[in-house]
Amino acid sequence: MKRIALVLVLAVLFSSLAFAQPAAAKFKIGVLAPAVTHGWVAAVAYHAENRLKELGDEVEYNIQTSNNAEEMTAQLDDLLTWGADAIVAFPQWTGMEVPIQRAVDSGVIVVNFDIVIDVEGIYRVTGDNYDMGVQGAHYIVEKVGPEAIVVMLEVPTSGSVSELRKAGFLDTIKEIAPNMTIYTYATKFTVEDGLKDMADILMRHPRIDAVYSMDDETSMGAIQAIREAGRTDIKVITGGGGMQDYFLMMPENEDIWIQSALYSPAMVKDAVDVALAVLKGEEVEAVKVIPTTIVDRTNYKDFIDPSSPY
Fold first, then answer.
1. Contact assessment for residue 127 and residue 242, using Cβ atoms and an 8 Å cutoff
2. Rounded to an integer, what distance in angstroms lies between the CA atom of residue 221 and that of residue 215?
3. For residues 158 and 96, which has the higher predicted lDDT (pLDDT)?
4. Phi-psi region of 95 (alpha: psi -120 to 50; beta: other; left: phi over 0)
């Protein structure tokens, strides 16, 4: 009987081994992002990693951050050596076209996040800079009317980002508020520059109804300048990005409508999803544009994330 029992146990054991399925191989997804130069940039890696952790049953991941094109190129080579099946790349510098093209030509899926680069065969996920300007124009006209006096804070050093947001704003104002008075000044995407430049602008203009700002950090500085100057004429200021500290200012300032047109770093989650979809053989559009969402004190609570670095 003992021999029979042993035989039965062995039979069951071998049977279970025969039918056991090997663990499914995980896709390897790498992320290339700049080192922290701006709160928005810091949040790109944060949101990418959060999404990759959520997909842990399907993917392995490797996130690299760099300070220049040379360092990012070296990290791209490291990801290829690691065996990346796909790479989500956020190349902020010129000079990345050749190494990324080389990766694509080797069969690696590359999803470009935000920045436009001249590479054949890549996928791209981005926000809609032009529509941010369109939405900003409608918001200002809705709050202060079509004949308001508006200051526009552009950022020429940001290249196509500022150009598109400016074009969307001006094209829309031309249609819906042709009599609006617009004064344009250059600034940068920082709190410090927003404060400094807005303080100077306030001395030049005794009356301003609204400020079309393209960035949340610029707007935070501008609001500080407005408060320090004791100005109560300005009823609207727009922004762009999706900064947590800026969101928290919205309910605290009931006398001015503080708005942000989302161009959220969380869009990188969509880039990760696109990479995985392509690896799984799903049909994916080459360019995915994330629609603009407007945040102000009526809905800011829906966008609060205490863990976000931006």
1. no
2. 10
3. 96
4. left
More confident residue, 34 or 176: 176
Q: Which of 183, 182, 267, 252 is nearest to 220 (CA)?
A: 252
In angstroms, the CA 149 to CA 181 distance is 5
Backbone angles phi, psi at 153, to 5 degrees: -100, 105
Q: Could you give the count of Cα atoms lying within 13 Å of 24 in the half-sphere of its Cβ?
A: 9
Average pLDDT, the chain: 89
Contact 55, 86 (CB under 8 A): no
> Is residue 20 predicted with pLDDT exceeding 50?
no
Whether the predicted pLDDT of 32 surpasses 60: yes
Between CA 67 and CA 78, with CA 73 as vertex, the angle to 5 degrees is: 105
Phi, psi of 212 (to 5 degrees): -95, 100
**pLDDT bucket at 270, cuts 50 / 70 / 90:** very high
pTM of the model: 0.77
- Amino acid type, 144: V
**Beta-strand (E) ranges in 181-248?**
181-186, 210-213, 236-237, 240-241
